[in-house]
């Protein structure tokens, strides 16, 4: 059955590739729209301020880490979701949606209710905002919620935390009461880095995935690149499903456990046109349980399900597509660390032919992080060799060649990628821009990605030194890139001296 599905996909690919090679790609940019400015929560004294052991700096009026989606039944209904008022030591005062019903020209700010103190909920902070529209137009959200302080006597552990979901039937303007699909108050456990996908082939199914760090009783914290201190830990991928359109949820269960001293992060589900459900993740292996030996590497891996997430294949270790060879980004002049997407990735699927596309930060091309791209035209069975797709020019300062926080999407058969880089940095501040590039021809061929197919999405360079600082200058572990089937819809952040981070929207028509 799988071989038959792969064969049909290949036949479709030939037709699409031949047709796509006939047309050049020229992008037309819509106006740059500033969506967010001041916090809807008001002054810090109003809500969401809980002094304790962990009480970092709050960056008021900052909006970071957006995800963006578009209603499949109404292309004018675009929704973004971000962290509002980021804290330096984790999370925000609440997760907030921006809703447009006119194709992105104007936006309404909608705090999602029931999550944090600032939105009438029981939790101190929220993080990792994620959205997904179902095929019937129901919008689903997922958020990490947590208390900052661990229990007394467990100061090296985690505070109580959980995963909250809710849904909207009016395009994001109003929301149901949240449902907690995971919760831990043991300081050993942290539910982290979630995403949610409504099945585009069946409105009843919604999939929520995340990793759950389990550290030794001594309370070992895991650092940004996955390493732990003395002791042991593991980080399996968990899944919870709804089979009734988000009204109720099955208990969370393990999707994949890489074993002790290993973990997953960045779980993200996509669904092929034939209904196959695929969960991608970074499989961080400090110790290879399958072939023995210590090591430290990042693997862009996946498992798949042919029965709506009930069972996952292959049994045992997952399919490993590519190595993620990232170093992390620093600013070109002052070498300030940027909290980027160096251990993460993005993935997209063509809803017509089933092609899979992935992007991530990688230093294999020139010794600094740039944007790697790989694709599969057979449902994930084989993958093209990674190629560099960002069009950042060479520079006497190689740190100005860095590109970071990539996103990938498909619009009417055209593959588009967005990213930040420092090419316009001139030594006054640390200047960054956001870019869009698409491929013309066979996307696995480097010659199909050219400067002629790249567009600058920022009107002017911004100084990233003004961004919130949370273990690095922080615009988000990801930014938004959606498609209404014709256009690309980019939602990204810029920072300013008078405001640490604001959200901007721009339509890109290939």
Structure description:
The chain has 510 residues and is mostly beta strands. The chain has a domain at 1-30 and 325-510. The protein is built from one helix and 34 strands. It has one helix at 2-20; strands spanning 28-29, 33-34, 63-71, 74-86, 92-100, 108-111, 125-133, 139-146, 161-168, 179-184, 189-198, 206-215, 233-234, 237-242, 253-256, 262-271, 277-287, 294-305, 319-323, 329-330, 337-339, 346-349, 356-362, 370-376, 387-388, 403-411, 414-421, 431-438, 454-456, 462-463, 473-474, 480-483, 488-496, 499-509. The strands form eight sheets. Strands 1, 2, 32, 33 and 34 form a five-stranded antiparallel sheet that branches. The longest helix has 19 residues, at 2-20. It is globular and about 55 Å long. The relative contact order is 0.13.
Indicate the topology.
Elements: H1 2-20, E1 28-29, E2 33-34, E3 63-71, E4 74-86, E5 92-100, E6 108-111, E7 125-133, E8 139-146, E9 161-168, E10 179-184, E11 189-198, E12 206-215, E13 233-234, E14 237-242, E15 253-256, E16 262-271, E17 277-287, E18 294-305, E19 319-323, E20 329-330, E21 337-339, E22 346-349, E23 356-362, E24 370-376, E25 387-388, E26 403-411, E27 414-421, E28 431-438, E29 454-456, E30 462-463, E31 473-474, E32 480-483, E33 488-496, E34 499-509
Parallel strand pairs: 21-31
Antiparallel strand pairs: 1-34, 2-34, 3-4, 4-5, 5-6, 7-8, 8-9, 9-10, 11-12, 12-13, 12-14, 14-15, 16-17, 17-18, 18-19, 20-21, 22-23, 23-24, 24-25, 26-27, 27-28, 28-29, 28-30, 32-33, 33-34
């Amino acid at each position: 059955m799988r071989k038959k599905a792969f064969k049909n996909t290949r036949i479709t690919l030939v037709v699409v590739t031949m047709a796509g090679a006939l047309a050049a790609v020229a992008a037309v940019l819509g106006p740059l729209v500033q969506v967010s400015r001041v916090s809807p929560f008001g002054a810090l004294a109003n809500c969401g301020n809980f002094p304790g052991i962990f009480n970092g700096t709050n960056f008021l009026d900052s909006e970071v880490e957006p995800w963006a989606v578009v209603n499949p039944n109404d292309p004018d209904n675009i929704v973004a979701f971000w962290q509002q008022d980021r804290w330096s030591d984790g999370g925000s005062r609440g997760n907030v949606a921006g809703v447009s019903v006119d194709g992105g020209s104007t936006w309404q700010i909608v705090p999602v209710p029931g999550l944090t103190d600032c939105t009438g909920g029981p939790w101190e902070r929220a993080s990792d905002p994620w959205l997904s529209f179902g095929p019937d137009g129901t919008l689903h959200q997922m958020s990490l919620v947590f208390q900052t302080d661990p229990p007394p006597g467990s100061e090296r552990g985690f505070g109580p935390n959980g995963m909250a979901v809710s849904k909207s039937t009016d395009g994001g303007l109003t929301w149901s009461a949240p449902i907690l699909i995971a919760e831990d108050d043991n300081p050993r456990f942290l539910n982290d880095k979630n995403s949610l996908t409504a099945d585009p082939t069946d409105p009843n199914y919604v999939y929520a995935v995340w990793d759950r760090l389990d550290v030794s009783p001594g309370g070992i914290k895991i650092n940004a690149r996955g390493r732990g201190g003395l002791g042991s830990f593991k980080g399996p991928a968990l899944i919870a499903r709804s089979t009734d359109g988000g009204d109720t949820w099955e208990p969370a269960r393990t999707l994949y456990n890489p074993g002790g001293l290993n973990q997953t992060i960045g779980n993200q589900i996509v669904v092929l046109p034939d209904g196959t459900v695929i969960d991608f993740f970074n499989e961080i292996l400090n110790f290879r349980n399958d072939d023995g030996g210590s090591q430290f590497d990042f693997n862009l891996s996946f498992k798949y399900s042919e029965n709506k997430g009930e069972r996952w294949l292959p049994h045992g270790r997952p399919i490993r597509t590519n190595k993620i060879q990232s170093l992390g980004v620093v600013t070109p002049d002052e070498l300030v660390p940027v909290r980027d997407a160096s251990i993460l990735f993005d993935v997209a699927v063509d809803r017509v032919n089933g092609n899979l596309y992935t992007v991530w930060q990688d230093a294999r091309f020139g010794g600094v992080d740039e944007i790697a791209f790989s694709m599969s035209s057979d449902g994930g069975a084989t993958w093209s060799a990674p190629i560099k797709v960002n069009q950042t020019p060479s520079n006497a300062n190689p740190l100005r060649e860095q590109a970071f926080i990539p996103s990938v999407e498909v619009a009417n058969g055209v593959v588009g990628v967005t990213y930040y880089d420092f090419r316009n940095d001139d030594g006054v501040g640390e200047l960054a821009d956001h870019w869009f590039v698409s491929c013309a021809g066979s996307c696995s061929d480097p010659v199909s990605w050219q400067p002629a197919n790249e567009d600058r999405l920022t009107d002017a360079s911004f100084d990233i030194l003004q961004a919130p600082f949370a273990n690095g200058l922080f615009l988000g572990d990801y930014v938004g890139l959606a498609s209404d089937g014709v256009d690309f819809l980019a939602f990204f952040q810029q920072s300013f001296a008078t405001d640490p981070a604001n959200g901007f929207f721009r339509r890109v028509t290939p």
